[in-house]
Amino acid sequence: MLDSNTGKRILDPIERARLGVQVVNKSIDEAMALIDDYVDGRDYDQQSVDYFKDQVMMQCKIRQEGSELLSTGGKIISLVVDAFAKNLQKATSQSGNTPQA
User: Fold this and answer.
1) Are 23 and 55 in contact (CB under 8 A)?
2) Does residue 19 contact residue 11 with C-beta atoms inside 8 Å?
3) Is the pLDDT at 90 greater than 70, yes or no?
4) In terms of pTM, does the model score above 0.90?
5) Are 42 and 2 in contact (CB under 8 A)?
6) What φ, ψ does residue 12 adopt, rounded to 5°?
7) Contact 10, 48 (CB under 8 A)
8) Residue 100 within any structural domain of the chain
């Protein structure tokens, strides 16, 4: 596809989908290098390439922050379970020391 303003090629939806599949599990640096290699020498409109790069960077950032949130959530659950187990253990040991009638 050609941009009507610049006359240069733009990344059409099929190309973005193909590139998206290739960069989905890559780091930001690897993804940017892959995109640069793809568009190098093909006379693409830089604005369309930059827009796609922004989308990929956002996806990488969301994936990274999502994994950090998942890790933090796991740590919180672990702390809660440990505290519950300790309190349960204290409660059972205290109830075991009381004399029965």
Assistant:
1) no
2) yes
3) yes
4) no
5) no
6) -80, 170
7) yes
8) no
Overall number of domains in the chain? 1
pLDDT of residue 99: 53
- Say what the pLDDT of residue 22 is: 92
Is-contact 11 48, C-beta < 8 A? yes
Residue 79 to residue 83: CA distance in whole angstroms:
6
For residue 99, the Cα-to-chain-centroid distance in whole angstroms is: 57
| 11, 13, 18, 20: CA torsion to nearest 10 | 90
93 pLDDT higher than 90: no
- Whether 57 is in a domain gets the answer yes
Quote the mean pLDDT of the chain.
88
Place of tokens 């796609």: 52
Question: Does residue 79 lie in a domain region?
Answer: no
Half-sphere CA count of 26, side-chain side, radius 13 A: 17
